[in-house]
Write a structure and sequence with these properties.
Structural class: alpha/beta
Largest sheet: 8 strands, mixed
Shape: globular
CATH topology of the largest domain: Rossmann fold
CATH superfamily of the largest domain: ANL, N-terminal domain
Strand content: 25-35%
Distance between the termini: 64 Å
Helix content: 25-40%
CATH architecture of the largest domain: 3-Layer(aba) Sandwich
Oligomer: single chain
CATH class of the largest domain: Alpha Beta
Length: about 525
């Protein structure tokens, strides 16, 4: 059955019932116009102000000739203006494309060319990056800079973001379909060229509400207060953390850069309820809190991700945040995080797990032939549900692989137990094959992180004449240990907790790990350096 819409104007019909990120911001602004939506340094921006600026950005982008579903590249750090521009793109039916600004200029140029982008919005401190990128991106016609800028960069006239954000006019009302693309985020491209991940308004809306439910985000008179330090060009900060809070009328406190003492002061002063950090950040907070205690009783949700966290550190986080549920969340750009999320009780009953699937996601295990596996059997973790991307941009081959057998393929290996809890073994590419045995780098990392004197650790496979691959631990020493003695201590600790074939054959002590902008260790860089 379908309605007869022959007498209904298509735009009016679309506006009445569509799924659109910009509409959600407007709805919250109607309910809580004077509530603080975003704290950005000394700026406090209300929902009314954020909505009005987003509307102005939408008008300004359309006035510059952008057409439906064209990308707008954002080379911007964390700011309320980033969010206003993002919502402006959503409102106007354009595609927001935040770009990882710590990538090399050649990589950024490749992304802009691949996306066929004609418009870039950038922060003034990134003008040197623009000067390196623009000569290699001939399709870029419109350059909009937030802050002081020259009249032209690489032969392109520069327009002011302040003018964009002050574009006058009526509210923007254009047809935007539920499955239109709202954002494109490029993958890290650690093993091949980055891939553009297309996410629809429907996917981001459903995942935002799902994350709000899983993270205890509140709607009503006692709003959630999120302190966010992770980069907004990454799915975790933008989609998992910030969007759910703004969807439900909470307050987002932008807290970059991460300085442990400043972050704890912010929690105390703003009565922050929700945080998400990397394990190394939690370690720094614990140390700072022990030295200079603050009142952290307001925090009710402390999420971690990107890497495992040892038992000793988890216990210390419990003590530092006495009223918080400490849980692990996981996911990936192609299937908006969190696709799996621990429940608070899993902190002690299944702390090494990924937790159950989100309520709007089905998580199963698939064997190489495409058959789904029973509980307890190991295979590839696959997903179904509205969190899943619309597909990769301009990459038919990758789409065929990703959606084979009617499920999204994560390239993660693991199993699901009888209670529906997902247990992650490793990334498919990070499984170490040594002496005929498969070793999970993640399982070994958890043990090595518990060795005395280890501040950070990662496990990789390196070529070995005898074993094929040898298990190699790369570690950073803490201040309590002589780095020269650490390899023997790590191996002794591993021998007491692991099977013989899992024990690292080599231990390399380094001053620092190569990492992505979100703190993930770049194992491919370590492998290349050891093989080179």
């Amino acid at each position: 059955m379908k309605p007869d819409l022959s007498l209904v104007d298509p735009l009016q019909y679309n506006l009445a019932g569509r799924v659109n990120l910009g509409d959600q911001l407007s709805r919250v602004a109607l309910m809580f116009p004077d509530r603080i939506a975003v704290v950005d340094g000394d700026r406090e921006v209300t929902y009314r102000e954020l909505r009005d600026t987003a509307q102005a950005c939408a008008r300004g982008l359309l006035a510059r000739g952008l057409q439906h579903q064209q990308p707008v590249s954002l080379l911007m750090g964390n700011s309320v203006d980033f969010l206003a521009t993002f919502f402006g793109c959503a409102t106007s039916g354009l595609v927001a494309m935040p770009v990882n600004v710590v990538l090399a200029p050649d990589d950024i140029a490749w992304i802009l060319n691949d996306a066929e982008s004609t418009t870039v919005v950038a922060d003034a401190p990134l003008i040197p990056l623009l000067e390196a990128v623009l000569p290699n991106t001939p399709a870029i016609r419109t350059v909009i800079v937030r802050g002081e800028a020259p009249a032209a960069i690489a032969g392109r006239a520069v327009q002011a973001w302040a003018d964009l954000a002050a574009t006058p006019g009526d509210p923007v009302e254009v047809v935007v379909d539920d499955r239109d693309t709202v954002q494109c985020l490029y993958t890290s491209g650690t093993t091949a060229r980055p891939k553009g991940v297309l996410i629809s308004h429907t996917s981001l809306t459903v995942s935002s509400l799902s994350n709000a439910l899983g993270l205890g985000t509140r709607w009503g008179s006692e709003p959630t207060v999120l302190a966010n330090v992770l980069p907004l060009f990454h799915t975790t900060a933008l989609n998992t953390l910030v969007m759910p809070v703004l969807f439900l009328g909470g307050t987002v406190v932008l807290a970059s850069p991460f300085v442990p003492g400043d972050f704890l002061d912010l929690i105390e002063q703003r009565r922050v309820t929700t945080i998400m950090l990397l394990p190394m950040m939690y370690a720094a907070l614990v140390a700072e809190q022990r030295a200079h205690p603050r009142d952290l009783s307001s925090v009710t949700m402390a999420v971690y991700g990107m890497a495992p966290m040892g038992t000793e550190l988890l216990d210390a986080v419990d003590a530092a945040f006495p009223n918080a549920a400490v849980i692990l969340g996981s996911g990936q750009t192609e299937c908006i995080p969190a696709t799996v999320l621990q429940w608070p009780e899993h902190r002690h009953s299944a702390s090494d797990s990924w937790g159950p699937a989100a309520p709007t996601v089905a998580a199963r295990i698939m064997d190489p032939t495409g058959d789904l596996c029973p509980a307890g059997e190991t295979g590839e973790i696959v997903y179904r549900g509205p969190h899943v991307m619309s597909g990769y941009w301009n990459n038919a081959t990758a789409n065929a692989t990703a959606f084979a057998h009617g499920w999204f393929h994560s390239s993660d290996i693991g199993h699901v137990d009888d209670a529906g809890v997902v247990w992650f073994t490793d990334r498919l590419k990070d499984i170490i094959k040594t002496g005929g045995e498969n070793v999970s780098s993640v399982a070994v990392e958890r043990v090595v992180l518990g060795a005395p004197g280890v501040a950070e650790a990662t496990i990789i496979g390196v070529p070995d004449d005898r074993w094929g691959e040898a298990v190699c631990a790369v570690v950073v020493a803490d201040a309590t240990v002589d780095p020269a003695t650490l390899p023997d201590q790590v191996i002794a600790h591993a021998k007491s907790h692991l099977a013989g074939f899992q024990v690292p054959k080599k231990v390399l002590v380094v001053d620092a790990m190569p990492k992505t902008a979100t703190g993930k260790v770049q194992k491919h860089v370590l492998r290349a350096s050891l093989r080179g």
